[in-house]
Amino acid sequence: MKQFFVLLFCLALENSSKAQDPAGVAASDTLQQHDSIPQKLTLLQRLNPKRIMSGNLSFVPIPTVGFAPETGFSYGASFNYFFNATKAGDKDSARESFIWLSVSHSTRNQLVIEPNWQVYTRGEKWFTRGQAGYTRFFERLWGFGNNNVGEDDFSDVFYERLYLQGVLGRQVRRNVFLGMRANTSRMFDAVEERSEFATLMPGATESFVNGLGPVFIADRRNHPYNTMAGWYAEASTLFHHRAFGSQFAYNDIQFDVRKYWPMKKGGGSLAVQAVANFLPGDVPWRELTRVGGPNIMRGFFEGRYRGRHLMAAQAEFRQPVGRFLKFAAFIGTAQVGNQMADFSLLHNHRIAGGGGIRILLNRKRQLYFRTDIAFTNDGTRAVYFRLGEAF
């Protein structure tokens, strides 16, 4: 939700920056007329929507506010840095990289401090992606497995968490990487209200997991933020072992495959994604696979269904309308289970679908702001405001 208010804030800045210029000339136009004279831009000029949309988007600090049932009113700031490691004369180019830091606090005394990054070195010889952070948060629990309690019978679990998740890969051939994946997560001071779902599971009040394992990535998408053609495949295994200091011993096996087909007419595209996640071993409840959220199975509250294993798939059609807008329609299905026998081809499918629009924020980076509304076969619905496509 907070990205929606970011967009409104940027639009409001457009009028503010014009008011500062007696001639009514936008900041980006002024720079073009006097490109030979060094210009010291004010914060309002840096955040002018015209400059953001047409310029070489780099460092963008913006305040963020929002509201959601899980958090109440939240406020904070986001610091975004976009760059490309490609230099003049390089034989091979590199895809866009980003680093951003988000800090937010809510009226329910929830705190989130989260840096994210995706960085390609020159020629894409190396690639790293990850996120870290500290959260003082809560989650809703409806039990575990593909069938659990009713929508209103959830339990709240409040906890604090420190975590670091990352991938480091070395290019072995163009767009193909081999490397290592790591995961460290410490959840502590958990308190559950209304029920005892977590109390009966491993890691009820605290857990520490530490895992390391190999990862394979093949990325042949035509663009990282606005993919219209190509494909993506990732496979990895994380070994959480007591030899690494982990309190729980289990494996985390993940597969993620995506394919994008451009339409011959109209400039649209069809995107399809299939994911699978298997967690054999002694898994604390906080690390179980989950259905829902803003990226896959939109419409379900994240964690509405949890289990050791997850299989899900989704498809999305995206159609440009004019120079700055795209419409999208999507549908997805998923199942979770505590053992492979829990999965069924004909029954227990969780289904979600919906649509939305995408608004172009920066032409050079092909960065879109998206808003989606989604519905589920459980009868729930949700609205999402995010930067970038879901997949």
For the structure shown, list the relevant keywords:
mainly beta; 2 domains; disordered N terminus; 16-stranded antiparallel beta sheet; 391 residues; Porin; two-stranded antiparallel ribbon
Describe the structure.
This protein has 391 residues and is mostly beta strands. The chain has two domains: 1-55, no CATH class; 56-387, Beta Barrel (Porin). It is 9% helix and 52% strand. The protein has helices spanning 2-20, 27-33, 43-46, 49-54; strands at residues 59-68, 72-83, 97-106, 111-120, 126-141, 155-173, 176-193, 207-219, 230-240, 250-262, 269-278, 289-291, 305-307, 309-321, 325-337, 350-362, 367-376, 381-387. The strands form two sheets. Strands 1-2-3-4-5-6-7-8-9-10-11-14-15-16-17-18 form a 16-stranded antiparallel β-sheet. Strand 14 and strand 15 (325-337) form a beta hairpin. The protein starts with a helix and ends with a strand.
Q: How would a textbook summarize the main sheet?
A: 16 strands, antiparallel
CATH fold-level topology of the largest domain: Porin
What is the total domain count?
2
CATH architecture level-2 label of the largest domain: Beta Barrel
Strand/helix succession: HHHHEEEEEEEEEEEEEEEEEE
Topology:
Layout: H1 2-20, H2 27-33, H3 43-46, H4 49-54, E1 59-68, E2 72-83, E3 97-106, E4 111-120, E5 126-141, E6 155-173, E7 176-193, E8 207-219, E9 230-240, E10 250-262, E11 269-278, E12 289-291, E13 305-307, E14 309-321, E15 325-337, E16 350-362, E17 367-376, E18 381-387
Summary of the model, kept short:
By secondary structure, this protein is mainly beta. The protein contains four helices and 18 strands.
